[in-house]
Each structure stands twice: as C-alpha cells, then as structure tokens.
Design a protein that fits this description.
The structure is a homodimer. By secondary structure, chain A is mainly alpha-helical. Chain A is 61% helix and 8% strand. The two termini of chain A are 46 Å apart. The first copy, chain A, binds a DNA duplex through residues 1, 3, 18-20, 23, 35-40, 42-43, 61, 63-68, 92.
Chain lengths: 203, 203
Amino acid sequence: MALAHALLSSLLVDGACSGYDLLKRFDDCISCFWLASHPQIYKELRSLEQKGWVQGETVIQVGRPNKHVYSITDTGTAELAAWIGIPSQPTTIREDLMIKTLAGHLVPKDTLLAELAQRRDLHQAKLEILKEKLMLLGAPTSQSYAGTLHYLTLRRGQRYEADWVAWCDEAMVLIAATPMDKIGFNEIGLTTASLTPEAGVLV
Amino acid sequence: MALAHALLSSLLVDGACSGYDLLKRFDDCISCFWLASHPQIYKELRSLEQKGWVQGETVIQVGRPNKHVYSITDTGTAELAAWIGIPSQPTTIREDLMIKTLAGHLVPKDTLLAELAQRRDLHQAKLEILKEKLMLLGAPTSQSYAGTLHYLTLRRGQRYEADWVAWCDEAMVLIAATPMDKIGFNEIGLTTASLTPEAGVLV
DNA sequence: CGTGCCATGTAAAGCGTTACATGATTCA
DNA sequence: TGAATCATGTAACGCTTTACATGGCACG
C-alpha cells in the first residue's frame, strides 16, 4: 500500500492539492522514486478519503473545470508516521535490460549495443534534470531538516541515474571488445536441443 | 510480458529445468534483476507451453516427486531474439524508503536512522554475495562472449547494491549532522491545517 | 516427532496499465 | 482549426502477492 503513503507524503510536504496536481508532482519530482497513473491516483484518493486519512474539498473555478483539493488529516499524518517506523524491504527489481543482456548472444552485437546506447542516453537525460534540480536546491548543509530530506531523495535519484550511465558505458566497451564465439546467435539450437537431466528418466 | 522472457532466457542460458528449479534460479542468480513467486512461474510456464515457446516433459523420479522439465523451443528462441530487438523502457521505480525519507521529519531521528541502517545492512549483505559470485566467475576479459554477458548482469547487481550502501551511508551522516528544526514531527499539524488554494473559492 | 526440502498446484485479492470518454479553454 | 492543458472519471485486463493445499522423503 505504498502508493497511499506516497500520496500522503506529497500532501504533507508540498501541501494540499488535487489529483491532477498530484499526477504532475509524480511526473516531476516524485518520479525518481515512485510512479502512478491517473486512474490509480484518483481511485486511491477516494479510498484515502473513506479511511479519513485525507479530506477533500471542491474548489469552484472560473474558466476551467472545478477541482477537488485534498489535504492530509491528523489521522493521515499519524498513519504516515506509524508506517515510517515499520521496517520495509527493498523493491523487487524487474529489469528488462538485464534479461536482454543475459540472452544477448542471440542477436547481432549491434542490436545489443544499440539498446544499451538508447538506455544510456535515457538515463543521462534524467541525470541532467536531477543535476539541475539539485543545483537549484543548493548545498545540503545549508538546508533545513526537511530540506535535507528532500535533498537526499534527489541525491538518490542522481546516484541511481549516474550508476546506470556508468554501467551502460562499461557494458558497451566490454561487449565491443569481446569477440562473439562459436555459441553465437545462429547456432544456439545445438546447445539447447539436447536435454540432459541430471537424474531421472525421460518419458 | 517480461517474466516470460526471463524464463526463456534462463532455460536458454542455464539449460532445461523444472518450474521448481526456475524458482531456485530466481532466488539465486536471477534475483538481482528479476523476481517471481512460484504460482507465477508455474502458470507462466503452462502458458508458454501453449504458445509453443517451451516444451515440457515429465521426468519420473524415484524417492522424490516427479517433475516437469521444460526446454526452450526454436520458436521460443526466435521470439526471445525478436524481443531483445524491441527498445524497452527503464523499470518504473517504486521505492518505499524514499517516501519514508521525504516524510522523515514526522518521526524521531533515531527511527529514520534505524531504518536506513537496516537497509544499508541488507544491501551490504547482497553485495557480499555478488562479490563472491564475481570472484568465482573470474576476470571479465577471460570470458567467452556469453560469459561476458553473464558477468555484466552480475556486475550490474554489484554496482546497484554498492550504490545503495553508499547512499545510505551518505544519508545517515547528513541526517545525523542536521538539527531538527521547528517544523518538527510534533508540530506539522500547524502547517497543513491551513488550506491555501492559489485560485478559486472554497465550498 | 518436528522441520525442511522436493514438487506442484488453486483461488482470491490487490495493484497497475491501457484504452475509452467528456468538455471547456488557450495558444499557434 | 488543431493541439495542448485543465480536470476527472469508468471498464477491462493483466500482473503479482498471499494464503491455502497436498504428500513423500530425509535428517536430527
């Protein structure tokens, strides 16, 4: 249920807003550690309101659609604080690119290298955005406590993206330097066709 | 549908095996970039067999339950190769710990620091395991092409875990050094109670 | 005699994405 | 006139987790 807590955190730290605004916050700043689509956000907000963790008020607007502004309640704040205290596990990683790397001998070198280059550029672009945000924020030592915490989330994003870029570079160099051997992408059939179960009888 | 391709890759690279064996492979080596539970694996394998991407054979065993050993087919191999060529997006990140960090001013410093320390140790432990595996594998330059690709997946895992450890250390130092200010965890109510929508009328 | 490994499954619930849908305003 | 932004929603589908279920063997 961490989406709920992501929403609560945002309402707490960046103030009350509508589902639509939350969506934009996710696109912007939260995106480096959480993502959510709009049906998910609207649905979750309604369920949070039912629980009494947030409170919604309709804001009538002129020249644009009305909006429903949510703010975190005391109960919601208490819930969030309690949740922070419960030890959590790291996210389970599901990374397509590693599957592609593992089975990369199936395709020509250039295909794999192109995929790596594409991903490198993607992470590089995110990295630039984060660098800019960190610049705007200023030195971590000149922050308030909450500012320091905000800095740390951006810093995590920066490290994450930089690490991806560095690995992609490493991978591209190493792959380029390693010759494809006999168990290449057109001969793999030979090695897997022969089933060799260690024990037991084939039926 | 990348679980399907993760299973195909494993059958291709590490050879034919049962659902149960795949589960263990996931726990072991694949875990650093993909995770799957056993209902998921068994179900996916049946669906892959229906598609003709894998082929199952029952192996009768003595002293232990029979097992169903799956091997990748030519169609499956072709499908996997085709999939590698399709550009993919980075995984969407969903990281509890960053939400906790962002809203960390809600709890006492020690609570947050304890959570960070816990996570640091977890990543450190995974890092040690990966280091060992990399040692056993040997130098990346002495590998076959497939060996190089395997190395790169482990290397990614190593970098990932090391980066987490480094960030946790950074975070703990910085948090310890920053005094909690007035907007502390017991006074937050004051700042959020007052709704301030920029435009429009409250109803 | 209890725990853990081997080996596979079902069923329900929760979480997440994608596509479809609306309707006004603003800007090029 | 067409596209983008504002603002919210439904419906269908797929992926993932968790709990429940079975049953023999080996080891301490």
